[in-house]
Amino acid sequence: QTHLVESGGGSVQAGGSLRLSCAVSKSPYSTYFMGWFRQAPGKERERVAVIDTDGTTHYVDSVKGRFTISLDNAKNTLYLQMNNLKPEDTAMYYCAADIVSIDIHGLLTDNIPYWGQGTQVTVSS
Hints:
This protein is mainly β.
């Protein structure tokens, strides 16, 4: 049974920083591609950053240079360091995991099997 739990969200002013964490409970024999997604009110859930099993990272253009995704395998924890936050980054942020590669440019999310409950990020101007 794979279980994801996010933490670290909060309210910050524009230009501030937050670090999101996603604790992963899984079989030691399971290896996942992992990603961060976000969903703003009235909008579709969108990809933010993805990390492959070999550590390769991918970002959507809107967060490149500001956000960093990383995975600590010893702690089974996925991170998203968010710097220079903007009001348009306001959303519920979710971590997700899949046994196949997550396409950073993909649109579907229903096919990704494992999700956390989300953590809210609010950026004020």
